[in-house]
Design a protein that fits this description.
3-stranded antiparallel beta sheet, 24 strands, alpha+beta, 7-stranded mixed beta sheet
């Protein structure tokens, strides 16, 4: 046995070794007997760790990473399929968002985790294209595996991919169009957001959803500085109703209600004090014990508590506030006193919501009642409570805030899963709109940009001498995998559709020809058409980031030639 050492023992020491072998901590050894009944101990060698080296390690890593890529490949494009992800707790998520799928999967392989992080990087930096970047990385690894089988060194493959990626990103810059937009002309932004939403669950209402996403981003954007503060956009979801009921509110929505049923449910010209202190008598910080032995002592304590409550309410009233927003709860006594004094109140408002309300209304967060004053109050045109259907579900809407650049998207849907997926879809669309405000250059979708880059990289490969030429050609073939996946997921012949689009690009010299998958076939029996006329846009920065991130991860995987898992045995 190659990874074991056989030790002969004498009969005198047999009882000791039998006892040692039976011990749980000595599972590294086992005892056998030969045909004469003589005992032998087999000891596992310490050097026999789980170790994969050289080309075997590289191929093993490629197979692991490609298996992850294959999972999300079917989710790419407008006709991509959704995945159901069930957590250990039984929570169900239905999505076709690449970053969400990768994040919710339990991946143990060390290299496969790199693709999960790749998708997360794309999501953090761009917000869209999380599926495409993983599919592209998988295609590059597939091509790399073929080159390894030909005997090409992994470093030469990595260097060839790096050169090809530089050519591809330069080609994207050359074919990019600038889309002019302004606060009065938001159509280019809406068209680009609609492209992002085409592959999402909300694609039935993609026009309305795109308008909501654009208006939300423009509402908080500084177009002169090309800056967007995403902290000022809140997203709230409430199951019930349909996706068409989703609306954009110029203000703040919080999932709370007015604390007393008899308090006013609509406060106009609201002046709110925002409290982070509890509406109750102070408690000693240390352990204490209070003994009440007489009625007089109890009444004195009761009067003292009442005095505390009255002082608190008076301080609120004197500041000029007509609405109390409190981070902590308060008991029925305080609630009743607030009602008697004509003050509406909201309790148990979370810390993040408190901060948003303070920013939007121009108020100051007050930690003590003694610090309340009129200049610290937040102001809003109207605060109202809204109810949903015939349930007791209620939410609070704060509109016409003093700092009016705070917006909230209220997402409705048939169930919680649809609401959550709609929120993720809108987030992707908002990220694309933000990217377009920062850099208003676009490339065209439907695989048009990838085909144009593939042709440019192939042409460059003709000028390269040596082994690198193989890797550069392989990079061009990997880029073709994106339009092929789009066609395949739409139930079409991928080779036929790719060949049609590619031949038209070469004949016409037009880098705008891609696959229009939402329309019937043209007179030639394929879907190749001009993506500019169709209105399928993608941001230039998003596409460039996809290519550069995918290439970097593939280079990292190719340069690993030894995997040592410590503490394990073969």
């Amino acid at each position: 046995i190659a990874s074991h050492r056989i030790v002969s023992i004498t009969y005198n020491s047999l009882p000791y070794y039998q006892h040692e072998c039976e011990k749980e901590e000595h599972f590294n050894m086992s005892m056998i007997y030969d045909e004469y009944g003589r005992p032998f101990i087999i000891l596992k060698e310490q050097q026999a760790k789980s170790r994969v080296k050289g080309l075997e390690a590289t191929k093993s890593n490629i197979i692991a990473a490609r298996s992850i890529s294959a999972i999300v490949r079917t989710s790419l494009g407008p006709k991509g399929m959704d995945k159901i992800l069930v957590s250990a707790d039984g929570d169900v998520t239905i999505t076709n968002d690449g970053a969400t799928i990768m994040d919710r999967m339990e991946v143990n392989h060390q290299v496969a985790k790199l693709l999960v992080e790749l998708s997360q990087s794309q999501d953090d930096e761009i917000g869209d294209g999380t599926t495409g970047v993983v599919v592209l990385a998988g295609a590059l690894l597939e091509q790399a595996e073929k080159l390894l089988d030909r005997g090409i060194h992994p470093v030469r493959i990595a260097e060839g991919f790096e050169k090809a990626a530089t050519i591809a990103t330069e080609k994207l810059k050359n074919i990019a169009d600038v889309v002019p937009f302004s606060a009065d002309n938001l159509d280019p932004l809406i068209t680009t957001a609609m492209t992002t939403l085409s592959s999402k669950i909300v694609n039935v209402d993609k026009r309305k959803m795109a308008e909501i996403a654009v208006n939300a981003v423009v509402g908080v954007a500084d177009l002169e500085r090309k800056d967007v503060n995403f902290d000022m956009i809140r997203m709230e979801g409430k199951p019930g109703g349909t996706l068409e009921d989703t609306e954009l509110v110029n203000g703040i929505i919080i999932d709370k209600d007015i604390s007393h049923p008899q308090m006013s449910k609509e406060i106009k010209d609201a002046k709110m004090c925002i409290l982070t202190c509890p509406f109750e008598p102070p408690k000693p910080k240390t352990k204490h014990k209070l003994d009440i032995s007489s009625r007089e002592a109890y009444e004195k304590l009761y009067e003292q508590e009442q005095e505390y409550f009255k002082t608190m309410v008076k301080q609120v009233k004197d500041s000029g506030a007509n609405l109390v927003i409190c981070q902590w709860g308060f008991d029925d006594e305080a609630n009743h006193l607030l009602l008697q004094n004509g003050l509406s109140a909201v309790r148990w408002v979370g810390g993040v919501e408190i901060e948003h309300i303070a920013i939007a209304t121009g108020g100051r967060i007050v930690p003590r009642f003694s610090e309340l004053s009129e200049e610290k109050l937040g102001r809003a045109g109207i605060v109202r409570e809204i109810a949903f259907g015939n349930t007791k579900e209620r939410m609070l809407v704060i509109e016409d805030c003093a700092n009016s650049n705070a917006v909230t998207v209220l997402v409705r849907g048939g169930n919680k899963m649809i609401v959550e997926e709609a929120k993720r879809s809108l987030h992707d669309a908002m990220c694309v709109v933000r990217n377009l405000i920062k850099d208003n250059r676009v490339v065209y979708g439907g695989g048009a940009a990838e085909i144009a880059c593939s042709l440019a990289v192939s042409a460059y490969a003709e000028t390269v001498v040596g082994v690198d030429q193989f890797a550069i050609r392989a990079f061009a073939d990997a880029l073709d995998d994106i339009p092929m996946a789009l066609a395949e997921n739409s139930g079409l012949d991928p080779i036929h559709e790719l060949a049609a689009a590619k031949s038209r690009q070469m004949k016409e010299g037009n880098p705008l020809i891609g696959l229009e998958l939402n329309s019937p076939a043209n007179e030639h029996g394929n879907r190749a058409s001009n993506m500019k006329d169709t209105g399928v846009f993608e941001t230039l920065v998003g596409k460039q980031e996809q290519i550069s991130l995918a290439t970097q991860v593939v280079k990292m995987i190719l340069k690993v030639d030894d995997v040592i898992t410590m503490g394990q045995y073969q």
